[in-house]
Amino acid sequence: MTATPDLGAPQLASPDLLRSVFRRHAAGVAVITAPGDGGPVGFTATSLTSVSAEPPMLSFGIGTGASSWPAVSAAGHVGVHILGDHQRELAATFARSGADRFGAPTSWRAGPEGVPVLDDVLAWLVCRVVARVPAGDHRIVLAEVVLGDPAGTGRPLLYHQGRFTALRD
Description:
By secondary structure, this protein is mainly β. It has one domain: Pnp Oxidase, Chain A (Roll). It is built from three helices and twelve strands, in the order H-E-E-E-E-E-H-E-H-E-E-E-E-E-E. This is Flavin reductase family protein. It is an enzyme of class 1 (oxidoreductase).
């Protein structure tokens, strides 16, 4: 039996309400990368969404105040990396402000279109940016898949209740 929501005590819309609700939503963890004038940039994202199969297209959100935004706003191509549950520290590094995201122990190489491609991920894609749609203090980036590799092994990394976690059987 499911509990009936308490409609007598709803909260007004606010950033805190949205954050509280989405802490309860388990999301896969990805790292988005892009070439930048000062070197590669990247960030951890839980907003990755498949948009279209024909043509193959995806979307992700990025805050306009993020350190990666200037490079992503100018990039013609981005890398999308699906992280495995063995990559909690990598996810934390790319989520941490001011971190040296591409220094050791991060293992990566320059990929097609100059996009940084991370090693040992479950899957990766290189995508051509087709639009950046304003959405409040963020932009929704729409990108068409150019190529990729789904052959990594392991289980996906998840983000839930404010922490990185793994699937349970």
